[in-house]
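Transcriptional regulator, AsnC family: structure, please.
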Amino acid sequence: MTTSADSSIDGIDRDILAELQTNARIAFAELGRRVGLSTPAVIERVKRLEENQIILGYRAMVDPAKVGLPVRAFVKVTIAGDKLTKFAALIKTLPEVLECHRVTGAESFMVQVAVRDVGHMETVIDGMMPYVATNTSMILASPVPWNTVLPAPRDTKQKRGGRISQGG
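Here you go.
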């Protein structure tokens, strides 16, 4: 379920979110030092962010190329009506799928895949074919593979880190 930013998120929460997205393995004591809180206070803040599902989880980011999957692509998928649910179920079973999004526009889904080679790509796309028409774009480089997600500041005078600018 997607909701708007929780009104209880403040500048310290923004700083905590930024730090955890940079290094989710940071010790609570160090996190507390960086955001200006005691260790117990920062633990309580992180717990609340998790309980409110603002922090959805923690995971290792793995370079697909370094584990034998150097070819990545976006597969744009177009599906007619009753096959949407079947495709959504199928795509969850494919280990080559890194992410899948239901989108607006000419396509129904955008699917990012990582594969060994072009032959492997063909097999993955062929596995989708009973349900769809596809259009594939190979990924050449990823200048921004993932960016930090922070709630929008509530005051336009606030900068990205969530603190109000002091002076001019």
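Notes: The chain has a mean pLDDT of 88.
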